[in-house]
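Q: I'm writing up a methods section and want to include an example of the input and output format. Could you take the sequence below and give the corresponding predicted structure tokens, formatted cleanly so I can copy it straight into the document?
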Amino acid sequence: MMSWRARRSGLQENRGSGEWDDQIHRAFPECEAVVMKYLAAYRKRARRFARGSIFWYRMFGAIEVILGVSLPLLFVFPGGDNAGVLAPISVLIAVSAALRAFWGWRENWGTYKAQNILLTEILAEWELALLGIIAKGGDNVTSVANKQEALERTRETANAIFGILRQEHDAHFSAIQSPDQIAAAVARNNNAALQ
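A: Here is the clean output for your methods example:
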């Protein structure tokens, strides 16, 4: 029977994660725990955020398209006063476009999708490296030298994971300007206009 911690973390008792070869679980459980803690969790996060971003991007894009196509039809529609309908539709189109631009769902989708691919690649490289250690280790796979090599490969994998996460952070926050930066830019523009 699985404990609540095992169910929550996705680990199965005495069986490894199911994401990589069972031999790794038996030979290097410490390395598996580190990779499961960081890599698997961030890969799931990237998949979840990518799905959410593309959902909202498509939803608000569809709203813009549908309302945008219906707007010209209301101008040429013969009959009564359409002003009561035109204004709300125009506002909804503007709000939808503003939300898409503000939240950057398309860019986030691309970022998280690329991140998921990179994390999957890192996982595959780590798994192949540890399987190589197991294959060359023969009967003495859990020797100190093999454990050290497996830990070094896991350390490299963790560094690669955090490098990808730093890139995500930089991508999201590089465009954000502080109020001081905005005030300085406005002052420069005002000074340039006065000259």
